[in-house]
């Protein structure tokens, strides 16, 4: 392993780990995806079930993933290999580490496209704002952005290279510093937007929509979507938790860290809802607008509301910043593994990995313009699925659930002899409950989600 390898790095404090893992987990999944998914599934009942899944299922899985990462003190591959060796397991379990490496690598290749859009809209907010935007003009503006391969490619490349620059600085100088700034700015902007809405628009209709449950309107599909969103927004199985936990000292409390992260994710999700839905409801728009809610619907709102330009600057800046620290968390597992296999420093490995990710992401970027008529699975009946759609579906609906399922089975069953109360930081009762969830509840829930996604 190269000199100065990552096993010698460590978070400056437990708090630094919490806000760094929070900055990595709280990204587009919470700030972009949660509002439209909650809106499409009726609001209150979905939100309550989502929060329940985060605490009851994701927290035990977080503890499991963190325990393997801290115990292995290496990349996702090295940590899983160490657990396999200690437990006498089959080499087939290496798939847990492999998925934890492939998901962030390929995920960042298309995640960075959406992040580039957020950067573009941040610039647009500063330069001219959205005054005079109606639905047609808003769709045209977003269409022009998506249709330009040069504009989109440069935004994507710039975003990835900025991410690589932070990862190149290391754990304390790079990741910790940016994560601290992000989390402070995140809560400041969200709370500011909520206060603005409360003063100028009112938040009671949004409170009813987000907090008053109507479980009859939710259905099985909505319940499984809530589970999927919980897994997605906490980054379970995506390699980030395991990698970041490798920098934890042995005396750090995994339960406290996990509950702090889960609490942060839920609070930010709710604040995001209260930052978005008051304007959406006040202007007679539909909460179930889908992915277009952020880039097509909200610019129309910002163009009509008092102080909309300032709000737009803060809002799209928040989306871009949220995406950035998540991208840092996605690139770090890749660089961590490269440092174990190549005798190079952080900087060249981060830049090289970033360029490779950008190249891998070009087909997804071009699927909005030059390759819009290219449908990789058309012969199998998916005539409308582009390269972007295929990669998004593969990662979100196949690889992430598979990774979370295998993680639960691996830690819950294969690692029973090496992951005990001492490794998890749980007392006897807590450890028994944790084992029950990791071995039985979580696998059955994730398996049910996978069946639903593939049906």
Question: Can you give me a brief rundown of this structure?
Answer:
By secondary structure, the protein is mainly α.
The helical percent reads: over 70%
**Mean pLDDT score:** 88
The number of helical runs is 18
Based on CA inertia axes, which overall geometry fits?
Answer: globular
**Sheet of most strands:** none
What is the tally of beta strands? 0
- Unreliable stretches (pLDDT < 50, length at least 5) are 1-6
How do the helices and strands follow one another from N- to C-terminus? HHHHHHHHHHHHHHHHHH
Q: What is the terminal separation in angstroms?
A: 44 Å
- Radius of gyration, in Å, reads 21 Å
Q: How much strand?
A: under 5%
SS class: mainly alpha
Keywords, please?
mainly alpha, disordered N terminus, 455 residues, globular
What does this structure look like?
With 455 residues, this protein is mostly helical. The chain is 76% helix and 0% strand. It has 18 helices and no strands. The chain has helices at 14-25, 28-40, 44-72, 76-87, 94-127, 135-147, 149-168, 171-200, 204-211, 219-233, 240-245, 254-282, 292-304, 308-341, 346-366, 387-414, 421-424, 428-454. Helix 2 (28-40) packs across helix 12 and helix 8 packs antiparallel against helix 14. The longest helix has 34 residues, at 94-127. The radius of gyration is 21 Å and the shape is globular. Mean pLDDT is 88; it is low at 1-6.
